[in-house]
Write a structure and sequence with these properties.
The complex is a heterodimer. By secondary structure, chain A is an alpha/beta fold. Chain A is built from 19 helices and eight strands. Chain A folds into three domains: about 40 residues, no CATH class; about 325 residues, HUPs (Rossmann fold, 3-Layer(aba) Sandwich); about 100 residues, no CATH class. Helix content of chain A is about 45%, strand content about 5%. Helix content of chain B is about 50%, strand content about 10%. Chain B is α/β, with parallel strands linked by helices. Classes of the chains: A alpha/beta, B alpha/beta. Chains A and B meet through helix 10, helix 13, helix 14 and helix 15 of A and helix 1, helix 6, helix 7, helix 8 and helix 10 of B.
Chain lengths: ~525, ~425
């Protein structure tokens, strides 16, 4: 049947005709224009710079969230957007600026080479380039590797990825500088955090679960050489663990999703330990539109708003800011070209992949393709996002153990979640593996609520225990995972904490009054 | 090696697109029907003894829906009185053929059938409309008219509810469409399994969680008779993009369709965002978010030889239209029948009449209240009224003529 509906009448307008670009004058000052930004706005160089700078400062300024002297961690990926962000911040802080920016930036780069199976020489090369860029700014800088996100204790440490730590490396000298920088900040804040956990064997997964808060962690100050060696070993283990985890997810879309989650975890963790109260992300409007639509497609609709809003308050002590959300990727590209801002090419999971390589990749191709013919696409999507609630006003809501957004799995009967679970149940009864899944589904239904049946005395987390603590999107991401022990340690700790809470609650349940 | 069915030991003949499980024919039928039953009971779609119209187009969704509804009604004793309801848009070579298949269903399933046509409701067939407007925006007319036609047909049959064959793919597609268009009101409404509970006839979608692929599979293995030709008039191009995106997503991750519906269900709209208020069309009494509903505007346009009147958002274009009508009917402006748009009526007076912006709202209330009784043949292009009046108002204020309170008597009906 024809699926045209009543609402279909208002569709965005397609681009009418190519705009004349030769001989145009700037719409502000009537000088010769050098570029056209959106729709038909021609600018000369200086007016364009004013326009971009103003837009950036207005985005940051109008919320009044960044206070004077506040420490802000700027996340760099090496890509055009974050490079532009760094440049805008540098410009804003320079002496000649009329109204100086007042916050104190620190820089962070997360090396995700392990996820793409890059050879260590290439990862070293990338880190070297990034370090050079970061060092040239004079801001304190941090380099982390994605595998450090698997274990909180790893994040809290300052040593850089193994490839850089590798003795004899060209970067060895510079490494000292990074450590110095970071440590000098840290010593200001807390001397305790600047000490380093050395003995990895004591921090193995099982022992960490028994001592979830790591109180008995030995803090030993060591010489830099032995540190390098031990961390080298540690990273190799972590790298293997990460590769193993990603491999068992069995889908590029899930891998991308998990990498995003871990990346955010590392950022919030570094920010907390190093005393930053804000993290700035370089995502531009085009990227955020892709993110919003991708979120819809991977069952994260409830998080779409929080993933694209200017101030993301999902994490407890750290606020994520997106100061470039009003910029299109085109504007970023033009800004970078005019200012000779360099970006570093870093391959991702879907680099050189076809459109169907992953959901995010497909969505990107879809949005940018539509944007070409319907120039209002990105702003339409962002406008939708702005009308959605971020759920910030609702307090005491339970969060996902993995991505920290509020749980969306506690739904009433006629819902997609229940429909899926029913489908799985009804089309796979009978054989052994399926009855297990059947059980899993039942506990899935009680998710969040918990009737005590999920409790187990074993120290290993069961898949249903983990699933019950996750949001719909994270469940989807780890659906194919064979062994939940492969998950990042912080997730497992959180799951155990919840299981214990449930147990406690079930013990005292009969004395609890119904407050609702 | 033949794969065994996951539920019995027979040989499996298909892999479910929704879950990936291998099933035999009988087990698939059972799973498919049980899922629809589960949806119906979970959402308590029906009450015993109700009369339910099945919107039947002759296509796969509605054919399978009619079949499954009949089976479940008997199996689970819903005690529903089922009827088929078809809309004849008047498209030669498409709808006449598909209606043949609905008529066959009428006999095969033993369900009474009612056909209502655009021609009897509106006086226009789609063929005639296409002659007027061409192939560019014809689908807009069809979509707007169909919704009303189904309701009117259902009222004639005195049914309690309408069920439509919208499947999970359709719902997911609509979610994506509404995100792309920034239409927050529809985005919030489109995932509801039952709509129109306030006042009008409730409509529900028992196939909301059913994959299109599985519907085809079901029809194929049940050997159901359905009509599967695309409409001869070009489909809405923009919706086509969303559709292609959904299909591509499904290839990457089959659960994506349900995942999008979950996303749509878990969206919450900011409290401060204003939602369009659903009112009633002053002309035909059908629910509408404007004073006069879209169908009435479009119909008026067709009858006046201005078919583009209800199409698009461009105020410029509508303004031009309204002006044209205004010029045409300038002479009759003070006559008994206010034929042209109220805004046009005001334009010549804007120099002498000015009023404060805050009086506008009360003005509009008056218009819509008096509209019920007085505006019998008024309001051409009335959906643009607001913008036009505002323009005139500002112009009027600028010219700073003395202020004059607007009351309904000023409007010369």
């Amino acid at each position: 049947m024809c699926s045209v509906e009543e609402g279909d009448t208002d569709v965005p307008f397609s681009k009418s005709r190519p705009n004349e670009s030769i001989g145009r004058t700037c719409m502000k000052c009537q000088e010769k224009a050098i570029l056209i930004t959106r729709v038909n706005d021609a600018f000369c160089r200086s007016c364009f710079m004013v326009y971009i700078t103003h837009k950036f400062r207005a985005t940051v300024g109008k919320t009044k969230l960044v206070r004077d002297g506040e420490m802000v961690l700027v996340a760099l990926s090496g890509g055009p957007s974050s490079s532009a962000l760094l440049h805008l911040i540098q410009e804003g802080l320079s002496e000649r600026t009329h109204k100086k920016l007042r916050f104190r930036p620190g820089l962070i780069f997360i090396d995700e080479g392990a996820a793409v199976n890059l050879p260590s020489s290439e990862r070293l090369n990338t880190c070297e380039k990034m370090l050079e860029i970061m060092k040239s700014t004079g801001f304190p800088c941090h380099i982390k590797a994605l595998e450090q996100g698997l274990d909180n204790d790893n994040i809290q440490e300052f040593s850089s990825p193994p490839d850089i730590c590798c003795p004899g490396s060209r970067l060895e000298k510079e490494l000292g500088t990074i450590d110095y920088d970071t440590e000098s900040i840290l010593s200001d804040i807390s001397t305790a955090t600047s000490s380093v956990t050395l003995d990895m064997s004591e921090c193995s997964i099982s022992s960490s679960i028994e001592e979830p808060y790591g109180n008995s962690r030995e803090a030993i100050a060591v010489s830099s050489m032995s540190r390098v060696e031990s961390s080298f070993q540690k990273y190799e283990e972590a790298e293997e663990k990460l590769k193993c985890l990603l491999k068992s997810l069995n889908s590029v879309s899930s891998q991308e999703d998990l990498i995003r989650t871990i990346r955010h975890k590392i950022l919030s963790e570094v920010a907390t330990t190093c005393g930053y109260s804000k993290v700035m992300l370089g995502s531009c409007g085009t990227r955020l539109a892709v993110t919003l639509l991708t979120d819809m497609a991977i069952g994260r609709g409830g998080q779409a708003a929080v993933d694209t809003v200017f101030a993301d308050r999902r994490y407890k002590n750290v606020m994520f800011l997106r100061p470039l959300r009003e910029f299109s990727s085109k504007e970023i590209g033009m800004y970078n070209a005019l200012n000779d801002v360099e970006s570093v090419f870093i391959p991702t999971l879907t680099t050189k992949g076809s459109d169907g390589a992953s959901i995010e990749h497909l969505t990107e191709a879809f949005v940018t393709g539509l944007q070409r013919d319907y120039p209002s696409t990105v702003s339409n999507i962002m406008r939708t996002g702005e009308k959605l609630s971020t759920g910030a006003e609702e307090e005491n809501k339970e969060n996902c153990a993995m991505c920290q957004s509020s749980l969306d799995t506690n739904v009433i009967a006629p819902s997609a979640l229940n429909a899926v679970e029913f489908s799985q149940r009804i089309s796979s009864r009978g054989d052994n593996s399926d009855s297990k899944r059947d059980h899993c589904n039942k506990t899935g239904e009680c998710c969040g609520e918990g009737d005590g049946s999920c409790n187990s005395t074993r120290t290993r987390a069961t898949k249903q225990q983990v699933l019950a603590s996750l949001c719909y999107g994270c469940r989807l991401a780890i659906r194919k995972l064979d062994d939940v022990e492969k998950l990042p340690l912080y997730v497992l700790k959180d799951v155990f904490w919840r299981v214990r809470r449930e147990k406690m609650k079930s013990e005292i349940e009969e004395f609890l009054l119904d407050t609702s | 090696m033949p794969l065994a069915c996951g539920l019995c030991d027979k040989q499996a003949i298909l892999k479910r697109p929704k879950t990936g499980d291998a099933l035999c024919k009988e087990c698939f039928f059972l799973a498919f029907e049980e899922e629809v039953h589960q949806t119906i009971t979970d959402a308590s779609l029906f009450i015993k003894g109700e009369t339910v119209a099945i919107g039947a187009s002759g296509g796969k969704d509605s054919t399978v829906l009619a079949y499954v509804m009949k089976i479940l009604n008997e199996r689970y004793d819903y005690n529903l009185n089922l009827v088929l309801l078809s809309i004849d848009e008047g498209i030669t070579g498409y709808r006449d053929d598909s209606l043949e298949s609905v008529k066959r269903n009428e006999i095969q399933y033993g369900l009474p059938l009612k056909i209502v046509s655009y021609e009897e409701l509106y006086g226009w067939t789609m063929d005639a409309i296409v002659k007027q407007i061409g192939l560019k925006n014809n689908c807009t007319f069809c979509g707007v008219f169909r919704r009303q036609a189904l309701d009117r047909g259902a009222l004639m049959l005195k049914v309690d509810k309408i069920v439509t064959g919208h499947n999970a793919d359709d719902v997911a597609e609509t979610v994506i469409m509404n995100v792309l268009r920034g239409d927050i009101g529809r985005l919030r409404r489109c995932t509801a399994i039952t709509t129109g509970t306030d006042g009008a006839l409730p409509r529900c979608k028992p196939f909301k969680y059913t994959y299109e692929k599985e519907i085809v599979m079901y029809a194929y293995f049940r050997k159901l008779d359905y009509f599967s030709t695309e409409c001869i008039y070009s489909p809405n191009a923009y919706r086509g993009f969303a559709r292609a995106y959904i299909k591509d997503l499904e290839k990457i991750r089959p659960s994506a369709i349900i995942d999008i519906i979950h996303s749509g269900e878990s969206l919450s709209v900011k409290k401060e965002v204003k939602m369009p208020v659903q009112g009633v069309c002053v002309r035909c009494g059908y629910i509408s978010s404007n004073t006069v509903c879209k169908a009435c505007i479009m119909l008026e346009g067709l009858n006046k030889g201005l078919p583009r009147l209800g199409i698009g958002k461009t105020h410029k274009e509508r303004l031009k239209m309204a002006e044209q009508i205004g010029e045409k009917e300038d002479s009759s402006i003070n006559s008994q029948n206010l034929k042209s748009c109220v805004s046009d009526h005001f334009r010549p007076k804007s120099n002498s009449t000015s009023f404060e912006k805050n009086q506008l709202d009360s003005f509009w209330v008056q218009i819509s209240q008096s509209g019920q009784s007085c505006c019998k043949s008024n309001t051409v292009g009335c959906s643009c009224q607001r913008s036009v009046v505002c323009k005139d108002v500002t112009a009027g204020i600028q010219s700073s003529v003395e202020q004059q309170k607007i009351n309904s008597s000023v409007i010369d009906f």
